[in-house]
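Bumping my old thread because nobody answered last time. Still need a sequence for this structure:
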């Protein structure tokens, strides 16, 4: 028998990732993030342009509960949320879900 990854798959859930589009529009993304959703985003986002934009939306749809994503889509449309903000939300969810920033920090490390 090969290596088992059953121990890496836990039923325990951390606190959800939270973000909002104002005080009356808070949203949650359950943890852990599905690995396939993150991998799919990474493979499609590197193409850039419209494919990257679609990949971010598909990613959010894939990691949010269906009713939560539907509400998020409605609120984002009603509030006329711009593209930069949508990408920022996707980036934030990835950073929080992975426990590390997606871009290098601007400061240098202390020796």
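Sorry it took so long. Here it is:
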């Amino acid at each position: 028998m090969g290596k088992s990854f059953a121990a890496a798959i836990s039923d325990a859930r951390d606190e959800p990732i939270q973000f909002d589009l104002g005080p009356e529009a808070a949203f949650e993304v359950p943890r852990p993030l599905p690995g396939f959703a993150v991998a799919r985003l990474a493979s499609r986002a590197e193409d850039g342009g419209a494919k990257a934009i679609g990949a971010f939306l598909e990613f959010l749809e894939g990691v949010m509960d269906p009713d939560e994503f539907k509400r998020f889509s409605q609120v984002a449309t009603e509030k006329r949320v711009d593209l930069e903000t949508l990408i920022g939300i996707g980036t934030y969810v990835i950073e929080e879900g992975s426990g590390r920033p997606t871009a290098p920090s601007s400061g240098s490390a202390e020796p």
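The CA atoms of residues 13 and 31 lie 6 Å apart. Let me know if any region looks off to you.
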